[in-house]
Amino acid sequence: MIVDYNKLNKKMKGTSVPKPLSGTLSGHAAGEPFDKHVYAEIKKQFPKNTFRQYEYLNDLFSKNPDVIGFDARQALFNSPTVLFLLSRGKNATDKWSMENPFDEKQNDTADILVVKDNFYELIDIKTRNILKSAQPPNIISSYKLAQLCAKMIDNKEFDNFTINYFELDWKLEHDRLTCTNAHFASLFNANPSDLYINWAAAMQIQFHVCDLPQTFKDTREKWTELYLKHFVTQAKKRAGDMIIKFVKPFEKYIN
Amino acid sequence: MIVDYNKLNKKMKGTSVPKPLSGTLSGHAAGEPFDKHVYAEIKKQFPKNTFRQYEYLNDLFSKNPDVIGFDARQALFNSPTVLFLLSRGKNATDKWSMENPFDEKQNDTADILVVKDNFYELIDIKTRNILKSAQPPNIISSYKLAQLCAKMIDNKEFDNFTINYFELDWKLEHDRLTCTNAHFASLFNANPSDLYINWAAAMQIQFHVCDLPQTFKDTREKWTELYLKHFVTQAKKRAGDMIIKFVKPFEKYIN
Fold first, then answer.
1. Sign of the CA dihedral A80, A81, A85, A86?
2. Distance CA B182, CA B178 (A)
3. B185 forms bridges with which residues in the sheet?
4. ipTM score assigned to the predicted complex
5. In this complex, is the C-beta atom of B248 within 8 Å of any C-beta atom belonging to chain A?
């Protein structure tokens, strides 16, 4: 791990950002200015290593101007797993040029990327209005995470990246959002069987960062195996539940 | 059917509303001012019969001030099917009073309700930025519709309500949204098997109103039977697809 989250926590607590002019204060978008705030702070600590995901891709492709086209650009990643996590689609990658770089994309895996000595630290910022009780936010697609685990096993890549979450709690004070607290959790320090999959919400894993137990002590390889077991068990359960809830009660009407 | 949608279409085309001050022009919320515009127009034509869903409930309960509590208030509806479509939950209904009436709710079934001679016309307004190609919007939960069809069959209620959709297409012109066209479709004029169910998006039926074929000519009773067949078939298919996509590929990693 590159970033010191305890230090980051102390830096953030008590800081404030202007209330967004547009939009309501409900929804996860409200705290977005904090995302930029955290990025600026990490960048201050690691100026050469801190990127937005799209910035990293623009940087990588710009440094290799002779490498053109999807396949060649994919090969610039020295890790198939990191490639899977960070790369864009074929069409977008084919079209990339210095004049037509990538822009921020809503469903990029990471908000912030810190890269050092071939280690990739993916950081996703979650913001939370402490005065409202909200559903846990979408964290990552459970299916994407299953594909990721399979790739880690296939390529025996267990130590070259991590996925971290940083939650900023805020409240509205005098037209500004003030950070009251912050919480850190690493996905791979959670017990895979604790991860809740909301199948109806695009199969997203959902949790509040502050509520995620960080009790997993075994190896990363073990983690991937346990997660895949969990995912497969939950997928089977959901398929069975669908029959019980959506098929059985209606069968008598359709003979 | 109470409302004349051809007439409504002519009234709407070419009209404009101020661009919303907050929020972006992407997303379905952008056209929301048109929703109010359509409501005002229908209300002009049927002043005593046109309601917001919450207004209708407030009106019904206000006219029966001695009827108190969930069960008694539920009994005010003379139709179990309409009750299922329009009523709020137990807690909210228990708490209702003249001083604490219902307010608009995001997931109410209808935007507009026209009630005449014990016939309920539910109208949902969909607005669409014609300059952006967007995913078809959420229409109604496929599960809720299945429950509705079962209730219709159980209570032999096939003729006392309908569910209609009215799409307003708009574009941004000089800081105003101008309605370029409008489209009408009735849910029960669509062939049930044409209804696309997006299981990952909260099991919502999704379509653009302008694209919904209105080719169903049989009885409403037949419609409910065909829809339940469609729903059950699709639920079984989704359960099977989940095993193929989310279980099989990962089994080799987990024993």
1. negative
2. 11
3. B165
4. 0.90
5. no
The shortest CB-CB distance from A203 to any of B200, B225, B251 is to B200
Residue A242 contacts B, CB cutoff 8 Å: yes
Which secondary-structure segment (H or E) carries A184? Answer: strand A176-186
The residues, any chain, with a CB within 8 Å of residue A192's CB and separated by 6 or more, are A216, A223, A226, A227, A229, A230
pLDDT in tens, B194-233: 999 999 999 999 999 999 999 999 999 999 999 999 999 9
DSSP state of B136: P
- Indicate the residue type of B79: S
Alpha-carbon distance of A163 to A140, in angstroms, equals 10
**pLDDT tier at A107, thresholds 50, 70, 90:** confident
Rg (CA), chain A: 20
Give residue A109's pLDDT: 87
Q: How many CB pairs under 8 A join A and B?
A: 88
Kindly identify which residue of chain B lies nearest to residue A144, measuring between CA atoms: B246
Tell me the pTM: 0.88
At A27 the pLDDT is: 57
Helices B32-45 and B5-12: crossing angle in degrees, nearest 10, is: 130
Nearest Cα residue to A161 out of A100, A237, A94, A77: A77
> Nearest residue of B to residue A226 by CA position?
B254
Specify whether the backbone of A87 is left (phi greater than 0), alpha (psi in -120 to 50) or beta: beta
Contact B243 A224 (CB under 8 A): no
pLDDT score of A121 more than 80 = yes
CA distance B79 to B118: 9
Q: Is the minimum CB–CB distance between A231 and chain B shorter than 8 Å?
A: yes
**Each residue's pLDDT tens digit, B123-155:** 999 999 998 888 899 999 999 999 999 999 999
Location of structure tokens 């950002």: A17
Residue B239 at interface with chain A, using a CB cutoff of 8 Å? yes
A40 and chain B in contact, CB less than 8 A: no
Residue pair B21/B195 in contact (Cβ under 8 Å)? The answer is no
Query: Does A239 contact B235 at a Cβ distance shorter than 8 Å?
Result: no
For residue A199, list chain B residues with Cβ-Cβ distance below 8 A: 200
Say how far apart CA B145 and CA B138 lie, in whole Å.
Answer: 13
Helices (H) and strands (E) in chain A, counts: 9, 9
Q: Which residues of A touch B153 (CB under 8 A)?
A: 253
Q: Share the mean pLDDT of chain A.
A: 93
Give B23's pLDDT tier (boundaries 50, 70, 90).
Answer: low
Dihedral, CA of residue A51, residue A52, residue A57 and residue A60, to nearest 10: -10
Query: The tokens of A235 are what?
Result: 């997928």
The whole-number pLDDT of residue A160 equals: 95
Using the Cα atoms of residue B65, residue B71, residue B74 and residue B78 in order, give the sign of their dihedral: negative
Q: Which two tokens stand for residue B88?
A: 């709020």
